[in-house]
Structure formats: C-alpha cells, structure tokens
Amino acid sequence: MSGWHATVLTIYPGMFPGPLGLALAGRALESGLWRLDVRDMRDFASDRHRTVDDTPAGGGPGMVMKADIVAAAIDDAEAAGPQRPRILLSPRGAPLTQARVRALCEGPGAILVCGRFEGVDERVIEARGLEEVSLGDFVLSGGEIAALAVLDACVRLLPGVMGAEASASEESFEQGLLEYPHYTRPQVWEGRAIPDVLVSGDHGRVARWRRAEAERITRQRRPDLWASYSRLQGARLDNLEGFK
Ligand code: SAH
C-alpha cells in the first residue's frame, strides 16, 4: 500500500509541503504513511502566459479562475488511481469538523483545489461535484493555507502517525466536548497549584474531574456544541430507560 494520497491543485506549488514537511506530518511523509502530489494549475493553461484566470462575467472587481483549467487539473489528478473526495477550499463551504476529518482520513485520500482571486467559475464546482469546505467565517487570500490545515488534521489521525493512539480519542470534539485543562510540573507556579485531584493518584476521581471540566468548559464557551452533546446524552438515557 502506498498510503493515504493527497493531491493539491494550486498556482503556488512552492507553498507545499511547507509546514507539513516538518514534525509529525513531515516524518510521516518521509516514511511513506502518506503521499503528497502538488500540481501547478498553470501547467494546464494552453497560452504562452499560462493564464488561469479571466475577468468576472457581469463585471466587478477581481478575476475568476477558469473552469476549463481547474477541470483539466482535476481530471489529471483523477487519472492517478481510485476515486477520492474532490474538495474545493472555499469560505462558502461547510465549516470543517473533526467528524469530516476522521471520515477523510479513513478514505483513500483527497484532491484539494486551492482557489485564488475571487474564486473559481461556478460551473466547474457543479460539473466536477466539488465539495466546498471552509476553515471558518473569515477570508483567506487563497485556499493553500486552508488545504495545509485540512491535510494536517487528516494526517495526524492516520494509523502509525501519532505516538499515543489514546491521545486522539480524548481530544476536543472527539466526544462532542472541548477538552479538559492540562497541567504539568512544577506543582506550584506563580502561586498557582495544580488541582489536588490530579495529584491524588485516584484514577476514577481524575476521570470524573476531567469529564466535569470538559462539560463546564463546553457549556461556557460553545453553547452550540453543548446543545448537541446534551441531546445525545438525553437520547442515551432514554434508551437505557427502554431496557428497564
Ligand atoms: N470572493 C470570495 C473570497 C475569495 S478568497 C468570497 O467573497 O467568498 C480566495 C480563495 O481563498 C478562495 O477561492 C478559497 O479557495 C480560499 N479561501 C478564502 N477563505 C477561505 C476559508 N475561510 N476557508 C477555505 N478557503 C478559503
């Protein structure tokens, strides 16, 4: 097996692997746990100036990436093997979630299209069935940093990439909650002590404290996550009632 396969389509191939060439993702790339192909979409232009954009129909500022160029780059990437999700990084997309990341990393890989200028011609989104994925409600100057973020989130979940497998399942979002607070030595720092329970050696109490803290932090910071977590817990309790 050649590993999880990412193809990035961009007009700035020099931005890759960038930070993904270092640390966890970089070591995994070197050892073949995943594979990264980066294609310059300008290679699919047919004119001397390697043009990938044109003025927006209907007028207005900026430029739009041409449908034929983006489609040719996608079709070329598809020829590489089994079908992979085709993702367009876009502020209009569904905000990326840990659930989507997990599903992506369990598949064969992904094709990531990085927009530039005002974005890409709507027709290529329809014609190639692109899934629009957003990093959040803010505007980047291009899809590259968003693609790096998607890849980083996926790669760290690939089998064999992270040292302690358990650490992934306890993290923020994996249980529908934000994570509990962490502490390490020294026992007292600037007059602040590590909570007693964490140095008690009582694993049951530690686990209950962590769960309670995760719930408190989620309730305070993310009412949206808290609402769906509470709904799920409610449904679990109802199920248990049914068995009585
Ligand atoms: N005119 C667009 C913004 C274009 S920004 C608008 O108003 O919606 C240029 C490119 O950056 C986009 O095509 C997309 O690929 C990328 N991009 C910008 N913000 C992003 C975000 N929040 N998430 C993912 N990609 C983003």
Structure characterization notes:
The chain is α/β, with parallel strands linked by helices and 244 residues long. It has 2 domains: 4-155, SPOUT methyltransferase, trefoil knot domain (Alpha/beta knot); 174-243, tRNA(m1g37)methyltransferase, domain 2 (Trp Operon Repressor, Chain A), CATH 1.10.1270.20. The protein has 8 helices and 9 strands. It has helices at 23-30, 67-78, 98-106, 122-127, 144-155, 165-169, 203-221, 223-242, and strands at residues 4-10, 34-40, 53-54, 64-65, 86-95, 109-114, 131-134, 188-189, 192-193. It has a 5-stranded parallel beta sheet, sandwiched between helices. Helix 3 (98-106) packs across helix 5 (144-155) and helix 7 (203-221) packs across helix 8 (223-242). The chain starts with a strand and ends with a helix. Bound molecules: S-adenosyl-L-homocysteine. The site of S-adenosyl-L-homocysteine has 18 residues, from strand 5. One of its GO terms (molecular function) is tRNA (guanine(37)-N1)-methyltransferase activity. Homodimer. Keywords: Cytoplasm, Methyltransferase, S-adenosyl-L-methionine, Transferase, tRNA processing.
